[in-house]
Amino acid sequence: MYLFAMALEGSGVAKLATLGDGSPAGKSILQCSSGHKNPVYLCTLLPNKVETCSLNLKFDEEDLVAFSVIGSRSIHLSGYFVADDGDDLRDDYE
Fold first, then answer.
1. What is the pLDDT of residue 93?
2. Which domain holds residue 29?
3. pTM score
């Protein structure tokens, strides 16, 4: 099982789940939990059949979000973060 957890400083949006490389056998299930709630299945990905899933999951700054994968292959997530108005992220890159 793969697990990724994050605490956001600002809000975030998960937009796409994509099946990673690996064994061609079996399905991989992406699940998500927020706070102390039970995990919810988001999608099931199958090699050579369904390898991507569109998402539109919005998370607030206060959310502790954990994504996990059940199955033999990883699942890659893409999306974006929206910083709080008071945060100045440009200073980190100068």
1. 47
2. 2-81
3. 0.77
